[in-house]
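Protocol step 4 of 6: structure prediction from sequence.
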Amino acid sequence: MKISIIALLTFLNTISIAQEYSKEPVDCIFNGQIIDSTNFNKFVNSLDSSTYEFNYSTKKYRRLLDCLYVFDSSNIKLCWRKAIYTDWNVRDTSQFYYYRKCIDKNFMVSDSYYNIGSGYFGHVLSAIEGDSMSHFELSENQIMEFFELAEKNSWKSFQFGLKDAVFLIGQIQKKKNEYLDKKSPIINLNDTTIQIVAYVRDCGEFGGHFETIEIKKSHATEFIATFNADSIHCEGEKTKPSENSEFNGVKAGIPKSIIIELIISLKSFDNGSIYSNGPFRIAIIYGKKNVLSQEIHGLKWEPYLDLRISVFGF
């Protein structure tokens, strides 16, 4: 009887989880402090800080999480930490067990779906591009199955509000098309809606805000664009409104030529040797869940800013 790789991994993982957590609860010790029922919740809540992550080796940190999880496997914050720190191996999907528990408990749902999607994507990438140390074989059907699962979970993440997921979806679709030796679907301006999602950098280390422009066809040759900007998130600072958020909900006509110009610029863009730790990112969602995305190294990208200025005036 044939069994899919996903079903097999799930089965083996379920057995290992059951064996690992059938132990009797024990006291956990951290830096000489015994963690028991009197201080357990306080200690788990403190894991949200980076203190333990930076001052405790990863191996010991994982052992601490294992011990705490045996003590109380129902604590959802602890489950999330277990999901993040389960030793990652591209050959399996064992850490997904904890992410799915978080989803079931409605905790960190969008992030959990995102991490499952990126995990499946990493899994299939290792199979089709891995070096001699990490390469392992999957059948073509299995590869396509993992591509599908990567994209499906990433769309779930996006639907639950994590806009970052759209850029991952674009990467997944691009790599899948390359694997199948297919071109990306043509962006048809007769589609009901085209959505532009941009992540604009406002501050250091990946901080910034999302901007969304939704384009709908109103008549045979006319298009209406609606603008929205999210709040700015900067590391170590309070969330604050973007200066462009005052234009949220503003609608304006957008010429077909400007849309085409942006699409051509995005498709033809090449970073070359330019590299930045804080890239500008942009994606166009079109058709039936098709995504064209690009990571542009630099804090801004002129074609997008030109479109925004010419259509909305800012």
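Step 5 (inspection) to follow. The radius of gyration is 23 Å.
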